[in-house]
Amino acid sequence: MHLQHFLLGHGPWPYLVTFAWTFVEGESFVLFAGFAAAQGLLSAPLLLGAAWFGSFCGDQCYFWIGRTFGLKLLGRRPNWRARIDRVLTLLRRYDIGFILTFRFIYGVRNFSSFAIGISGVPWPRFMFFNLIAAGIWAVVFVGAGYLSGRAADRALGHYAHKFTLVMLAVFAVILVTVFIVHRMRHRRARAKAAAAAPELPTLEG
pLDDT over 90 for what percent of the chain? Predict the structure, then answer.
């Protein structure tokens, strides 16, 4: 089946996947999706909307978790403290500028909304600037992918579709590899924790 027919024939699913992916993070996925949109495989406006809304909703959720359960979770995960403190320092120093740009800062991206929830920033204020920030993020990454796709289309001509297929295959392999490695690490961590746990005394007789 031709990739274009496959994607265009699945209605809203590519955009629902984009929403779900960007809810978590998803820069690499959005770049690839923007590249595919440049080939006519996806709708660029719908892709932009899905990425914008997904990123916004994801960080609102993490903000709420931080506001509601942040201190309790931090007590259970003391290894988070250094990254949370770094986020709070940047928030105090740059305020609105940090909320608008934390998606682009490597090393604090995943903890920022959670930490801002702990900080006491009013939720309407965060929601307003988070909406703007999510839009900036979506425009940058969808736009970068789209422009890269247009450049590849001009450079490769009718081979651009084949190149997109190769990129899709590589992306799928990377995704599966990351999932397998994550599962292996999780199993090793569980096995290590089980081995370190003290054995319960047994009753004899």
Answer: 41
